[in-house]
Amino acid sequence: MLKYIIRKSLVTIPMLFVISIIVFFAIQLSPIDPISYSASPDVAVDSENLEALREHLGLNDPLYIQYYHWIIAVFKGDFGYSIITGQPIAKILALKLPATIELSLLALVISTIIGVAMGLVSAIKPNSMSDYFSRNVAVLGISIPEFFFGIIIIQIFAIQLGWLPISGRIGVNDVTFWDRLPNLILPSFTLAIGMLAVLLRYTRNSMLDVLSKDYIKTARSKGIPEWKVFIFHAFRNSLGSILVILAFRLPMLIGGSVIIEMVFMWPGIGNAIISAVSSSDYPVIMITTMMLASAILVASFLVDVLSAFLDPRIRLE
Fold this sequence. Notes:
Layout: H1 2-28, H2 34-38, H3 41-44, H4 47-57, H5 63-75, H6 89-124, H7 129-143, H8 146-160, H9 177-211, H10 214-221, H11 226-263, H12 269-278, H13 282-310, H14 312-316
């Protein structure tokens, strides 16, 4: 198992290196000049000033030299500065990323508990009322855009009923996590609805597939209680595909929270990404893109390790 993990780790490193090359050179193809965009009017009217600024920032160096300096700085933990605000990118991440992670983790917990539970009930009692209800929930969760669902629940629970706050993360007197939990409920449920639907369908289909296997019939023929058949035989063997979805969805939740953060005015990394893209803040765009790509690679690595742990045939191959 250790050799398998080391081999997968060695594959991940060059993939991250290739992604960094793609991200850096793709940004350079943009037609917008960030220096002209960010320079003050008195500097922008003088081409010599702009050229001096480019020279100072190293933008006149060959692209491979710029990439070398950038990737070495990233490995040292120096993410650079925003060319629009002048704020260190590390500070932007430190301020914004915890809010997004908090929102994404709660959405992951909600969607996992509800989605897997509904999928199990639906598989155990196929073609029942609970199965039809779960399948309709899955269809609605996949077909309705998350931002539209967010607007609906804001109208119902925040505006009409007044039970929960409309937007923001922290109130005036909020100190602990439990103080700001009401602010988390609406955006986390909105972010969770899509993943809940996917998990529900995968759990149901995976369980139904496993329940049709011969070893399930053998376990039943031995007189094993039905609940043990479902939990220890069927659910355990269907965990592989469910864990794959869970591992891949967390980085996708972080990246997909951009629209939800805008709807609920959530002060997360999504707002920083939107602001950086709209203002062509290249350093911020490159670092946030690398961050999301790294999260997806780590998720892929975890999927491989978990799959190998659950199925010895994978690591033996």
